[in-house]
# Entry
Amino acid sequence: THCPAGMECHNGSCTPAGCSSHADCAEGEVCDSGRCRPEQGQSLPCEGAGDCPGAQVCIDNQCVLLCAINSDCPDGMLCEQQICVPEPDRSCSTSDDCEQPELCVDGTCSILCTIDDDCPPAQLCDGFVCKDRPRPEPECLHDDECQAGQLCIDARCRDLCRTDADCAADQFCECGVCRDKEEIPPECRFNSDCPAGEECVDGQCEVPCCEDADCPEGQVCQDGFCTDPLACGCDVDCPDGMTCNQGHCSVQ
# Structure
């Protein structure tokens, strides 16, 4: 099988090529956790998916990388409306440049801490400052490098699962594999990080509600916030006869 640049043939299918440095990747891609991914902030003009590198697709004549959650995106990017976008600039000169309770520490808006629990998800307390947890070194490049009952996902051997109960206490089941809860960077830290009318709850922007009528079409009011009962990260999250399309289960 002939695969496009940045991809390699593995078990009869084109998959992202494994890498150990940026030099191993195609132009416009970088080596991220053992996989070639679109360069941060890279936005190329296009007319169709064939014009875009790697796993990018063409939307509104721009190459973009689709996502369901923040961990689907490369370092330095967040998932917003199912598209990977660059993280906001958090540089500062003084603490007046930061949102409370952040302070300007070494030129970056940061949250002070004493223990890891003081920090948002995917961060730890390092030197009394919340910092992003470092990504582990690549553990694998292909499924056959993992034990039985595991798959190589994002350069790590991950256990297969059907529900959260199949995973360790500090993990959750996503798309059939166990992931660490700390892998999901926060979508927000403060209400001001969210669109108007939304609140930051446990690192995610949520729409507050009192009843279903307060929510966008297709969502229901649950525990005071609007929830999409058909939200998904991949096809296995959907009921039979439905597939995951841009974060939402729909009929095939």
In short: The radius of gyration is 20 Å.
